[in-house]
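seq:
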Amino acid sequence: MTRAGFYLARLLRQEGPLAAMSVPQSGLLGALAGKSVALVGNARSLAENNHGAAIDAHDVVVRINRAPMPQAESHGTRTDWLALAVRLAPQDRARIGAGRYLWMSHKRKRLDWTTATSDGFYLHPQADYADLQSRLGAQPTTGAMMIDLLLRSELAGLTLYGFDFFASLSLSGRRTAHDVPHDFTSEADFVAGLMAQDNRLIRR
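struct:
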């Protein structure tokens, strides 16, 4: 697709041409078979721990949005996949150095050309977003969408770091739970239910 064609499809909300830029979900998930995965959230409480080495020891490290990493001791340094629902500034893109970008937001107007044309780009289906929104009763966070997605794969294990469901707020901003369209109690219950059903999922 040409750059002009991309912007036209985005403007007109033409899902088909945008989806054609994405690797298939089956291919994305197939790359995780048998692997250990760390999903790193942006809770401020993560900075109070020393999980960095454990995070980087996973086969695949997935981070979220602007992926703040205040120190290697708490957050590690590797980013294999970056799950996005926001536009990424060039300096953040260079700092994070992700190997693959996943666009998780249902808001396609925020999707940028650089992300959409990157190697291994993945566009999360609108139907999957809507399904999780229905189950949670609110707009899902990028983290909740990634947990739901990653557990569909045949990964060996998924460990969550920096997920306290906004109890300590987020390193990526100053908003409180009242300022965002998410239901963190519902998401905490959702994750607890998954952990009870699937022993591959662990929260640190």
